[in-house]
Specification:
The protein is α+β, with helices and mostly antiparallel strands. Helix content is 51%, strand content 11%.
Length: 234
């Protein structure tokens, strides 16, 4: 796209008639008074209509500026409308890193130099307060273990993903074992051995081990401590 940047009379340009965006030009006027014009308007050279910077141009007119810098582009009517739309859309999609923004605004607030940033002191206070309300919690690392091994989780996921006509008659209940890391390692080793020789899932193997242990206790085979030591590897 060919373009040319020129300094031209403000009154020689025309506002784009179908600009869909409204704006408060007061912050723009404040910015121009503090910093001057720091980027050119984009103008269709064939119509002298402003494609980007319409509100800046209106602020210039209210301030009584006689000249401005404009970048003239040679585009047809369709392309001109697309430029207007994408410029507005890009502004809508832009987001802020709130922590960085707070740091910048707080710096100018402390220096007493907010004028020209587009923010008032009250607005800065509101932004800082909103960021401070976000609570960040540091969670302690869980050092215990879980009843399911990685292999069991994968097996369960595969079973779930496969279609089945089976519908349980009763609601299934979950049992969670909260084990310290050392106990968990020992437990997994024993359960792996049981699964290997019984060809059962971890859940079935544990259930059967518990039933068998209970039967041994009921039948007076061994004392309770020795049985539980054998089961859980104590």
């Amino acid at each position: 796209m060919k373009y040319k940047v020129l300094k031209v009379p403000v009154d020689s340009l025309k506002e784009f008639p179908d600009n869909p965006r409204d704006s408060n030009i007061e912050p723009i006027k404040e910015s121009i008074e503090q910093h001057g014009q720091y980027r050119p308007l984009t103008v269709n050279k064939n119509t002298n209509e402003i494609l980007t910077g319409n509100h800046t141009w209106l602020a210039m007119k209210e301030l009584g500026m006689k000249e401005c810098t404009a970048m003239f582009v040679d585009v047809d009517e369709v392309t001109a409308k697309k430029i207007v739309l994408v410029d507005n859309r890009a502004n809508e999609l832009a987001t802020y890193d709130k922590e960085i923004m707070v740091d910048l605004l707080t710096e100018f607030m402390e220096l007493g130099k907010l004028l020209g940033t587009g923010y008032s002191a009250d607005e800065v206070d509101d932004i800082v307060s909103a960021v401070d309300e976000v609570a960040i919690t540091d969670f302690e690392e869980f050092t215990g273990g879980f009843a399911l091994t990685d292999e069991e989780i994968t097996e369960a996921q595969e079973r779930i993903s496969q279609p089945s006509d089976y519908k349980p008659k009763e609601k299934l209940n979950e049992v969670i074992l909260a084990l310290q890391k050392t106990d968990h390692t020992v437990y997994v080793g024993h359960m792996t051995t049981i699964q290997k020789y019984t060809e059962k899932t971890g859940t079935d193997a544990l259930y059967e081990a518990v039933l068998n242990t209970a039967k041994d206790i009921d039948n007076g085979i061994g004392d309770r401590p020795s049985i539980f030591d054998k089961l859980f590897g104590k």
